[in-house]
UniProtKB/TrEMBL annotation:
Residues of the Thioredoxin domain: 360-476
Lineage of source species: Eukaryota, Viridiplantae, Streptophyta, Embryophyta, Tracheophyta
Organism per entry: Elaeis guineensis var. tenera (Oil palm)
Gene Ontology BP annotations: cysteine biosynthetic process; sulfate assimilation, phosphoadenylyl sulfate reduction by phosphoadenylyl-sulfate reductase (thioredoxin)
Record-linked SUPFAM superfamilies: Adenine nucleotide alpha hydrolases-like, Thioredoxin-like
GO CC annotation, single: chloroplast
Catalytic activity: glutathione disulfide + sulfite + AMP + 2 H(+) = adenosine 5'-phosphosulfate + 2 glutathione; [thioredoxin]-disulfide + sulfite + AMP + 2 H(+) = adenosine 5'-phosphosulfate + [thioredoxin]-dithiol
Protein name: Adenosine 5'-phosphosulfate reductase
Keyword presence, Cell membrane: no
Gene name of this polypeptide: LOC105050935
Chief location category: plastid
Annotated EC: 1.8.4.10, 1.8.4.9
Family: Belongs to the APS reductase family.
Cofactor(s), by name: [4Fe-4S] cluster
């Protein structure tokens, strides 16, 4: 991996001083406590020299792979370094990361970043996706410590993202350490299933080949990594992330569970505060953001969102909201599964009892259909009246988002001869709903016409009253 270069001609010491001064004015960036302030922070002119290339022996050579740090030492210096590493591991074993996470829960991102870089040095790297997580690089720069940045080039990114990578490299004087998917695996996937198989059978397989495995390779050369995960990015899967944790999914260079530490310095920061920070510090941004993109990933799987839409609605929009993790942070989903937010068993009910999530669409104008009720509706070829039914899960943010309009619609239709119902289709009803009721993601809205056996699926994501009424009027 390459490193941050201290002597970037594009960053003058004057601009460093003024930008650092502005950092102190931002709410999410607090002054460092004296005990953790790197000495270089107090002297901007010295700090530029403190950020030295990590591979000082060959400063001009890019190292495009994660260094195999476990190789046998060839020199006395390497043997000493290895010995130091062993000492560090022993010290590391004593760290209680749950406790550390509690201690750092109210720390600023800059403090957390500084702690992470101080602790792991060259064995830690920032995972950079090409979106607003560029803020992590700025925080790293502000610590004055050397840092490494890696990114997963899936081969499916937007051109704007590649240009952004280049702009970031130039701005910070760094080489991003790109990780690429295995060419043979990509070839096998594309030859057997085509270029867009993820629209047909889900994004997991493609993400596994293009993202997860390259990430696994990258992390096997590290002892810790730094992510831009935030709690507010995905209420379903990221609400519980701590600022530091033992990585629940991946292994580091020493191998085995517990061999990798995951730092999430902006876990507690809200998206708007990240953007205030980026703007104030004149950090380069991906031009896709100005086109309505919030969360940025691969081109075929990312789209702009409208004002008010949650950013994760712009990713894998054809799939369940709760499954919107590409595998890079699958521990979040695993944790969720542990809480039985899963696709089988009586999971959702358990979650409700754990988190006290109330049921939704609660009005007399909406009929709460049980499994026998919806079975009957499916079997009838001649219904006395048409039905509109939403397949939902009460924990689903998108279902919650349409609750007001669906209730209003039901009340409007009351007495018109059109019945409005709801069927809770998560937990142990999910497979049935997928096979018999065309459930793809929550919410799915079905219209059961009066004289037809098969329900018709509402094809749009516009769930306002007028759009739903237009759908009903076109079919009744
Ligand atoms: S985000 Fe889409 S294109 Fe990118 S790796 Fe995942 S499924 Fe493939």
């Amino acid at each position: 991996m390459a490193s941050a270069a201290a002597t970037s001609g594009s960053i003058s010491s004057h601009s460093l001083i003024s930008r650092d001064a502005r950092a102190a004015l931002i709410g999410s960036v607090r002054h460092l406590e004296a005990s953790i302030v790197p000495s270089t922070l107090n002297c901007p002119s010295r700090r530029r020299w403190a950020v030295k290339p990590l591979h000082a022996v060959e400063p001009t050579r890019r190292n495009d792979s994660v260094a195999p740090l476990a190789a046998a030492p060839a020199t006395m210096a390497e043997a000493v370094a290895e010995e130091k590493g062993r000492g560090r591991e022993e010290e590391e074993e004593k760290v209680d990361y749950d406790q550390l996470a509690r201690e750092l829960e109210n720390a600023s991102p800059l403090e957390i970043m500084d702690k992470a870089l101080e602790k792991f040095g060259d064995d830690i790297a920032i995972a950079f996706s090409g979106a607003e997580d560029v803020a992590l690089i700025e925080y790293a720069r502000l610590t004055g410590r050397p840092f490494r940045v890696f990114s997963l080039d899936t081969g499916r990114l937007n051109p704007e993202t590649y240009r952004f990578f280049d702009a970031v490299e130039k701005h910070y004087g760094i080489h991003i350490e790109y990780m690429f998917p295995d060419a043979v695996e990509v070839q096998a996937l594309v030859r057997s299933k085509g270029l867009f198989s993820f629209y047909e059978d889900g994004h997991q397989e493609c993400c596994r080949v293009r993202k997860v495995r390259p990430l696994r390779r990258a992390l096997k050369g590290l002892r810790a990594w730094i992510t831009g995960q935030r709690k507010d990015q995905s209420p379903g899967t990221r609400a519980q992330i701590p600022v530091v944790q033992v990585d629940p999914s991946f292994e580091g260079i020493d191998g085995g569970i517990g061999s990798l530490i995951k730092w999430n310095p902006v876990a507690n920061v809200e998206g708007k505060d990240i953007w205030d920070f980026i703007r104030t510090m004149d950090v380069p941004v991906n031009s896709l953001h100005s086109q309505g993109y919030v969360s940025i990933g691969c081109e075929p799987c990312t789209r702009p969102v409208l004002p008010g839409q949650h950013e994760r609605e712009g990713r894998w929009w054809w799939e369940d909201a709760k499954a919107k993790e590409c595998g890079l942070h699958k521990g979040n989903v695993a944790q969720e599964a542990a809480q039985k937010l899963g696709t089988n068993g009586n999971g959702a009910a358990a979650v409700n009892s754990v988190h006290g999530i109330p049921d939704i669409f609660e009005t007399q104008a909406i009929v709460n259909l049980s499994r026998p009720g919806i079975d009957n509706l499916l079997r009838l070829e001649n219904r006395r009246e048409p039905w509109l039914v939403v397949l939902y899960a009460p924990w689903c943010r998108f279902c919650q988002g349409m609750e007001a309009s669906y209730v209003e619609l039901a009340e409007k239709l009351s007495g018109t001869g059109i019945k409005v119902g709801k069927f809770r289709a998560d937990g142990d009803q999910k497979t049935f709903a997928q096979q018999q009721l065309q459930l793809g993601s929550f919410p799915t809205i079905l219209f059961f016409p009066k004289h037809a056996s098969r329900p018709i699926k509402y094809p749009s994501e516009r769930r306002d009253v007028d759009s739903l009424l237009a759908f009903i009027n076109a079919l009744r």
